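Risk register update: the risk of archive-format incompatibility is retired. Evidence:
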Amino acid sequence: MTPKNLLSHTYALPIAAIAARHRATALLGAFLLSACSSTPLPPWPAQSSPPAPTGPQTSRAVPPPLGTVQRGEVVPSPVTVTPVAPATEPASTALPYSAAVAARFPAPSVRYETPGLAEGRQAFTTNAELTQWLRNLATAQRGTTRVQMLDLGVSQRGTPLHGLVLTRAAGTNVAALDASRRPTVLLLGQQHGDEPAGSEALLVLARELAQGLLEPMLERINVIVVPRANPDGAEAGTRATSNGIDMNRDHLLLQTPEAQALAKLVRNYRPIAIFDAHEYTVTGRFLEKFHAIQRYDVLLQHATTANLPEFMTKAALEWFHHPMIRALEAEGLSQEWYYTTSTRAEDLRLSMGGTQTDTGRNVNGLKNAVSMLVETRGVGIGRTHIQRRVHSQVTALTSALRSTVDRAADLEQVRSYEARDIASQACRGEIVVEATQTPGQRDLVMLDPQTGADRTLRVDWNSSLQLKPVKKRHRPCGYWLASGATDAVERLKLLGIQVMHVAEAGSVLADIYEETSRESSEREDVRGAIPGARPIIRATVTPMRSAIDVPGGSYYVSLNQPLANLAVAALEPDTQNSYFANHVIGQLGDVARVMAPPSLVFEEMD
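Archived output:
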């Protein structure tokens, strides 16, 4: 069932029964019944219930996402939020558009404070200030809440990559969080250096979780906050990392140390929900193409790629997306599905976030997590409306945390089921190798650049809610990799995919790839060519069944594992994000589809 169908379909039966109905085949029946009996799934309500209170009521004045604002009250430390009247832009600030447009986005009734949001400040929070902020939270004295600063690695220019673990488990390491039996949430910001509001909002949320009104949530969940994934880009004010690679197109290939650091973090801590804070272009090519300015405060989208786990996708929609919309609307903030447009002036199509397995949104979805993009209007407008932009992020992400609290037990049951279900499909059925968006039309509201009035536009729209399979193949039992494919093996392991080392020579029944044509081209996303990406090999291949000799020292990637569908994305060679297309695997003969359970001797790998 596609995500689009899930929006309108009413589920009155338990999930296990629905899963059986949609996957009822003779081959899978016995295994799925076994999986469901050992991992019972929660009933799925037809409508999401309102979030339950997550902590005691308090009279402190805090941002509306965290409590109820009482105008005129002063917020005591540690939550530094000052009630203010709706603000206008200072006279010294050059607006990126007309005053009539600016008037559509009044400041919120509270003011957030971080180093980068200080009154009169021109620069956002620096890397050094961010590090000190996290360090202060980690070293402050407190009761049962544990806060630990994480050293995730360094950027290409040597800047430390930091995160913060917040928990009431017995410790802050992976084992302690696992033993707590609480789901872990990852909040991620500023993968793109020119999108600062997410980073500033995550500093606010980190403080609230450590010593504010969100702290009681830690009785039910663990939280990891990475406010700034791309410190080099933040320092330079650029989208990409310092070598020109867009790290949010690098989560499968793992070419940058920044993407590698996030992959290790997700592999080790296994968050059940990941929320990625971004900002989107407000004027620029939208003004050029449509003679209008972007209106929506927030654009949202969950993972939308081929072979996603069905019920985690449903959870993203019903348990997270829908409550997030309600939370935003309660604050007077507008929202829509995420969309963008290409850099080609003649192309008037708008496209949702893409279907490629390269973004954090889609790669983390294939890691069986709820994975969502939260984009506020910010790119190209400097500090304009920064309090409203931060408020939008805080509102959306606080809703995400509350949804995780409300559904903590259900989420663990669903993920356990999905892991068993995906692993059980090895050697049977089909996989979608490549899928595309579905074209259509949609009404969107933008703003008149002079008057600021709403302008409804009927636009050509590429939807990612219902995918069109372009290429399917029989699902193999696994993939064989040659002994020289060590680079691919290391990247698969970083992603959390199990790889086995062949200890003794043997033979397997396999599909080898016969190449019929190839060309060199650019990697592309819905915006156009991906900056910083080297040319890829676009090969046309035909799988040919054959018995092949497997030497000792080579590798085997079984699809009888929870991350099987992520392995498919990396190893089927004829897609633009595959390891072969991107020169991680040197030649087609170094990979083969194993089509029957192999009788091989394996040894453990480090």
